[in-house]
Amino acid sequence: MKNKRTFKLVWKYIARYRALLVLSLLLAAVTVMLTLYIPILAGHAIDNIIGAGNVRFEPLIKILIEIAAVAVATAAGQWIMNTINNKITYSVVSDIRTDAFEKIERLPLSFIDSHTSGEIVSRVIADADQFADGLLMGFTQLFTGVMTILGTLIFMFRINVWIALVVVVLTPMSLLVARYIATHTYSMFRKQSETRAEQTSLIDELINNLKVVKAFSREERSVEEFDEINDRLYGVSLKAIFYSSITNPGTRFVNNIVYAVVGLVGAIAACMGAITVGNLTSMLSYATQYTKPFNEISEVITELQNAVACAERLLKLIHERPEKPDDADAEVLEDVNGRIDINDVSFSYKRGTSLIENLNLSAKPGQRIAIVGPTGCGKTTMINLLMRFYDVNGGAICVDGRDIRKITRHSLRGSYGMVLQDTWLKAGTIRENIAMGKPEATDEEIIAAAKAANSYGFIRRLENGFDTVIGEDGGSLSQGQKQLLCITRVMLTLPPMLILDEATSSIDTRTEIKIQKAFASMMKGRTSFIVAHRLSTIREADVILVMDKGRIIEQGTHNELMAKGGFYMNLYNSQFEKAQA
Asked: For residue 400, is it within any domain?
């Protein structure tokens, strides 16, 4: 059933090129008929040279010229057909890859969080390549193979019915061999595809975190993990290849039996005068051409099993449930004042595992709200909910009195400026990275933002300044410089609400003081949420929320919370005790 569903989904993509497909089929029929016409001509040529002194040169030369013309026409038709098949195959794969990439951008973060990036990349790249190989073989060999079988049967029945019947009776043997092998290869190729994705995921993870691997001396352990996956991939690949490799010898054995029987029966018929030597030669040629497609089709079926297994994984990604779209009547958030109300919010990433329960908060426009608490208390989750990366399970979050589920995601997220502990940089120039949220920004605006964020100094010292090209993770820039670029990006857009999640964690103390001043200027009149582990950085916040186990357990200014002598005071004092120790 899965195979049928996958084939139906693939067919929807192929059907877009229906005209080319029909043309390919017509060319397949024409080239096959021309190919099969040559043995007829060859048989006539042989009949014109049978017997001593019985060679008829005039008709023989005409036949040879006709054979040459047919061969040239066949070659031209096959070249055009192969070109069309290539066009169909790579257009289909391109369409599927495009849909997969677009779907990734529309998938909810819950899917991305639950799948490794390497595994997703493997589906879009490696699986698509494997699928293309199988699909191309299907177009180039399956069509012509089927046409050849039908064509040879027609020609053989025209020459001699009884010999043709012998061929038809022996045909099921080849089909049974191919079917047996096909049923065993699909599951193996699917396992191969899954294991290859696991290997790609590990390699991607190691490359992106090579510094961590070296820092903790996990090179040997990483090699062991790779070897374990590699051994499994070797095992499943060997089994898949073994079964696929016996396809050709198995069908060839059956085909040789067919050829031998045709030769024997034909020789007896020729001796009895029921068939001419030329026609017997044509029959033997057709017997070879008739059985050859079974070898090719068997190979195609094996390759298609691999292609279908890869297509299934790729199409499964494409048909994953996307992020819930905005409501048809969703409002565009404009002229934001920055009032945020969190009303009785509950949320959990997994059913049955409670994380946030009955969370309530009212943030006035322009307030600086700091969120503190131990690891796992829900600080980052609260940010995810504010940005609507995840929707709440219960309650509501409102901006300016409007439920954010009734607001378009684009306008909501565009109203926030985010600077996180983990930097977000793409491959490109410094200028492109800063202007990511405001592509139309002028050079003057970008330079002003860089000066405000204190990044102008190091950017100017780079070889090409703002036109310096960096890698997807910042290349050779230090972690502090990367974070300064992210801060500059927010400085450029200056949205009405800010989220700062340990935004200065990778910056030296001297630079941090300057950045804090820039932040203070930037946060004026803007509702700001500041997640901090160093409590000394949020003493000036208007409201400090102390979270623990998904709930706000204390709330107030720094002085008010210290006066209470509760959880916050203990947390604050413990940091200074560690610093003094």
From this structure: no
The whole-angstrom separation of Cα 123 and Cα 113 is 16
CA distances from 221 to 200, 226, 234 (A): 17, 9, 20
Residue (of 190, 172, 177) closest to 134 by Cα position: 190
pLDDT at residue 449 greater than cutoff 50: yes
**Contacts with 445 (C-beta within 8 Å, 6 or more apart), sequence order:** 438, 492
Q: Is 448 exposed, middle or buried (0-12, 13-18, 19+ CB in 10 A)?
A: middle
Determine the Cα–Cα distance for residues 384 and 112; give it in Å rounded to an integer.
14
Distances (CA, A) of 161 to 157, 164, 168: 5, 5, 10
Identify the domain containing residue 287 by its residue range. Answer: 2-201+230-318
Amino acid letter, 56: R
Q: What is the pLDDT of residues 355-383, one digit of tens each?
A: 788 888 888 888 888 888 877 777 778 88
Instruction: Clarify whether residues 423 and 296 are in a common domain.
Output: no
Taking Cα atoms as reference points, which of 16, 251, 293, 308 lies closest to residue 133?
308
Query: Does 293 share its domain with 180?
Result: yes
474 and 559 housed in the same domain: yes
How far is the CA of 83 from the CAs of 4, 11, 79, 349, 387, in angstroms? Answer: 28, 20, 6, 50, 49
**Cα 184 to the center of its chain, rounded Å:** 27
Residue 166 sits in the same domain as residue 258:
yes
What is the token pair recorded at 511?
Answer: 């630079």
Distance CA 315, CA 306 (A): 14
Identity of the highest mean pLDDT range in 49-58, 68-77, 483-492: 68-77
Number of H helices, E strands in the chain: 21, 12
Same domain, 60 and 192: yes
3-state helix, strand, coil in the chain (%, to 5): 65, 10, 20
The DSSP bridge pattern shows strands 527-531 and 497-501 to be parallel
233, β-bridge pairs = none
Domain of 440, CATH number, reads 3.40.50.300
pTM here is 0.64
CA–CA dist 370, 532 (Å, integer):
7
Phi, psi of 322 (to 5 degrees): -75, 170
